[in-house]
Amino acid sequence: MSEQVLARGAVAFDPATHGFAFPNAFVNEVLTLPNGAKITTAGRCGGMAYAALDYFLAGQPAPAWRADLWAPGRVPPDSHWLAQLFTQRLRDSFLTGSAAKFVTWSMHSDDETWVFKGVSRWTKEEELPRLMALIDRGRPAVLGLVVARGLGAIGDNHQVVAYGYEHDPASGRTTVRIHDSNTPRRPVTLTSDRDQGDWTASNGRRWRGFFVQDYTPRPPRVPTGHPPGVKDEVRTGDTVTLSHVWTGLTLHSDDQRYAQPGTDGAQLITCVPGSGDDARWLLVGADVPDGTDLRNGSVVRLRHVSTGRWLSSTAGVRSPLSRQQQVGASPSPDASADWRIEVVDDRPWTAGARVRLVHVATDAALHSHRAADPRLTAGRQEVTGYPGRDVNDWWTVLELG
């Protein structure tokens, strides 16, 4: 009597590295009615699954931004390039031939009929072997998980990344390892037994079945290949790249100057994608030596690494686009270059925290927003000093050295 061998396969996809550190808590506004009421849908699971697979296949970690950066919403706002990426990749996931199964499977029963196999047999006899073959060839797959039993509930279906499986012929039990954006950065399993038609997820849901989705990779945007640890402390003497929390772009300068009426000819400060020398800033303590811990209330100066100029602002000088207080880079580190750190919850400044940088002399917060004008800000996102306070004042550390 031949021994039955446990079948298993896995790909080196890691939810903690290639998944995102925030949950799929997006709310999509799809229509505004004449009375002002908004019609919304929940989640961008397909976009998050496709994007996670994009990063994996490119050999890059997913951006490490955490949910608390965008409290209380917990996800990047629609102004952030990452939220826009998920929207685009979600659309891509629905513009595939396989996506039609979300409709057809939701309309069919679990059990076999005289015409169709039904969802249970389709999953185990067709889709599971296809998934196992992909994983055996070293490729994870996006799965469409089906729970709906009619078109009215089709939005309850889901999309995940599958990266491993185990099948025990003796017991008939099959386990599929998945990355589920509803359970950030933790492994989840789908399990079904020989006599069980549906699949039980370890994070609590039961699914009627699943199918392998068509997927074409796209090169992902990689803001940095060297993300710091979220608990790494920031000190004077460190060099940082600062990311604007609400859009995901980085604080940048080069040798271009403001030339518009009302500006002072200072070196231009903007926000751009990515990192590099033009986005690196040396933190200099106003009255303390290098290596001093920075915390809520500390005052620092930021010296631009590639040009040697200092982040500064001056009352009464207006930015060319929004006409808020201009922020530039000046040649000397005087009082116009002093910035006070405001850390959420009055904590020390760590790389994973969100902070404000408040201009000491004018109490204007370092601020940015999506607007850009090629005539006024070299086509980049404007950076200003803002006298009030809002979500566009938040920054976080993208790189720390």
From TrEMBL:
Keywords: Repeat. SUPFAM superfamilies: MIR domain. Residues 214-234, 316-335 are annotated as: Disordered. Residues 316-329 have a biased composition (Polar residues). InterPro entries: MIR_dom_sf, MIR_motif, PMT-like. Gene3D superfamilies: 2.80.10.50. SMART domains: MIR. The keyword Repeat applies. Residues 217-226 have a biased composition (Pro residues). Residues 231-286, 291-344, 346-400 form the MIR domain. PANTHER family: DOLICHYL-PHOSPHATE-MANNOSE--PROTEIN MANNOSYLTRANSFERASE, PROTEIN O-MANNOSYL-TRANSFERASE 2. This is MIR domain-containing protein. It comes from Cellulomonas fengjieae.
